[in-house]
Every structure is written in structure tokens, then in C-alpha cells.
Amino acid sequence: MSHHTLKSEEECGDFVRGSCFFGVGGGGDPVAGMRMLKEDLEAGIALTWIDMDELDDGAMTCCAWGMGSIAPRDPGETQRTMNRFGVSGPVHPRNLAVAVQELERYAGVKIKAIIPLEPGGRNAPNPLSSGARLGIPIVDGDYAGRAIPEIVQITPCIAGYAPWPATSVDPFGNAVIIRQAVTPPMAERIGKYLAVAAFGSVGMAGFLMPAKEARALIVSGTAGRSLSVGRAIREAREAGRDPVQAAARASGALLFFKGTVSERKWEDRDGYMFGENTVSGTDEFSGRKLRIWFKNENHVSWLDDAPYITSPDLIVVVDSMTGEPLTNTVIENGMPVSVLGLPAPPALKTQAALKVLAPAWFGFDIPYRPIEERI
User: Fold this and answer.
1) Pairing with 277, which of 6, 209, 233, 329 sits 20 to 30 Å away (CA)?
2) Closest to 206 (Cα-Cα) out of 175, 165, 169, 153
3) Neighbours of 98 (CB within 10 A)
4) What is the pLDDT of residue 79?
């Protein structure tokens, strides 16, 4: 499905649901993502993605992404802090679109296509919506194939590309140009602290490059794949079939645990949501426990305290009853959940990629073993 326009609220819902599935616990709030697309539909704005092959080799592309923590925030405390700094409220409902415009203005180029950084319940709909409002399509693909917490973990950075020049625009009207950073991790740090200053998140645009170079870096087909998985979950529910099994079949995932969330802990630190969810097994997994550590997204798991599925492979937690993919923001004790896993895209399993995506990068002395060997 290389060229497609979302034409109904149902289809938008399928896309957001599937994008959230590949967001592996992070990737932004799907409620916010759906709200954006619904507003666009009501305004008659075409929500279209294209194939990279539709672009001329010299057509300029950029990557657009949200930067910040997915951790819940105290609205009262946020408002008090905003008042202290004289911030009255949002002025850019589509600040990611403004970041793209700022990048065009700074670099003196016309961007022909936007490449999402990653899938996710908000982080895929946001570039789609923002681009549509600028008359710029997104491509059917992204730079990771799954949601990731750090900019250094996407394929351009792995291949040696720098994100700068990059623009950062928050909802309140603050705009920053990152002309240069000493390293990509430092660019990530700057972006995160801009998000902290903006009470949680900013929209960013960077990785300017012609389509010929971008074509070699994208994980293709992720928009179409998200739509298919989201549709499969919905149709299974409507037909009275098991939506979890439908999600597994549509995505190529394996169901590797089922249970009830029995313990949950998290903290908001350095612009990321860190934490761990423990699932106590039910049915065929009765008497067993699965722990999942996350940094925004799910990255390391232990089955009965033995290392199990880890990044870069995907660990997806869904509601056992509805099949809805769950972000780590909304998971609560007592929830019945199913945990699915699927192999990471090949681009995330090279030696260079494993340096920034294997458990050691996150501080765990656990060797990466592909999910095909673990299960």
C-alpha cells in the first residue's frame, strides 16, 4: 500500500491503532493522534502518504518528530509553572508543522516530503497531519520501524548522518534553531531539555537530505502496515473473534505471555519515562512472571527473572480483551494484558545498530539474542 489517503474516521482509527502497536509502549498518545486526524477530516484536508519512489532523487526531504517524555503530568503543577513564566497557553496547535516551516526558512529549501521518525499513536499521525496542513505528504515508511527513545537509534544516525540543522518549536510559540551540536547524543540532550522547558514536549524537524539518500535509509511500508494491523484488530472485535490473535497474525508477531499487571513503577527523569511493569501469568502462563523495563518504549524483559525478549526486537503490550495496544502511560495494576513480540527490522540488527539498541546501551549486562532464538 504505497500511496494511500485516509478517507474516514474508521480508517484513521485503524491507522492510529496500528501505529500505536508498533510504538511498543511509547510513541505518544493515540488519543491525541486520533484527535488531530479527525480535525483534519472535518476540515477536508487530505491525509496522504506516498511511496519514496514517487519522489525525484533530488527532492528534499526532512524528518519530523515529537521530542519529550510520555510520563503523566500533574495539570495543576504544570499550570502553576506556566503562570510563573508568563505562559498563558498554546498558540501553535500544530507546532510540528511550524517546525517544518522554520527548517525550510532557515535552510532556504522547499521540502517535498516528510519522513516520520518512528511509528507511534501520536508520532505517526502528527507528521501526517502536520504535513497535510502544509500540503506536504509523508512517505510510507520511517527511520526506525518501531518507536525508540533516542535520536541516535534511528537509521540516519546509525549510518552517520547528523540531525542538524534542526528546529524545535513548542506549542507556546518558542522556536529554537539547533545549528550544530558536538555529537548526535548532545543534540538529543538539547532537544530533551527544550522539551522539559516547554512542560513536556516540542516538535522538531531535521535530517534534511535528498530523496536519493533518504530512500536508502527508510524502513519502508510502516504506514500501510500500521493501517493493516489496526484494521485487523478492529474487524476481529466486530466479528467476535480474538483481537489479540488477529493482531499477531496481521503483524507477524508471537504471543509470548498473558496475564495481569501486578506491579508497576515509573519515574520521569531527564525527559524520559523510565519504569518497569510486572505481569503475573494466567491461563497457560499461570505461576510465571514477566517483567518489562521501559525507557518510554519497552526494551528489556525477564521471564521468571531470566533475560528474555529485548531490544531491538519489539515487545508489544495489548489489552487481552480488546486487543488495543497500550502505552506505558496508561498501563495500570490489575489490567489483563497480552504480550507479543516480533523481530526488529533488519536495519536495526546490524552491528552498528546494536551498539545503540542492544540491552548494553540501556545499562544491562545482557547479550542480545534475536527473538527467533529466545522463543
Assistant:
1) 233
2) 165
3) 22
4) 85
For residue 200, what pLDDT is reported? 84
Beta-bridge mates of residue 307: 302
Confidence band, pLDDT 50/70/90 cuts, at residue 75: confident
The dihedrals phi and psi of 82, each to the nearest 5 degrees, come to -60, -45
Neighbours of 363 (CB within 10 A): 10
The candidate with the shortest Cα–Cα distance to 337, out of 322, 352, 357, 359, is: 322
Residues 6+ apart with CB under 8 A from 278: 261, 262, 263, 264, 289, 290, 291, 292
Percent of the chain with pLDDT over 90: 88
Q: Which residue, among 261, 255, 257, 275, has the nearest Cα to 331 in the 3D structure?
A: 261
Share of the chain above pLDDT 70, in %: 99
What one-character DSSP code corresponds to residue 325?
B
Residues in the chain: 375
Spell out the residues 6+ positions from residue 346 whose beta carbon is closer than 8 angstroms to its own: none
Contact (CB, 8 A) for 355 and 349 = no
Q: Residue 305 and residue 83: Cα distance in Å, rounded? A: 46
User: 25 φ, ψ to 5°?
Assistant: 95, -15
SS3 214: helix
At residue 93 the predicted structure's pLDDT band, cuts being 50, 70 and 90, is confident
8 A C-beta contact, residue 10 and residue 37: no
DSSP secondary structure code for residue 335 in this structure = -
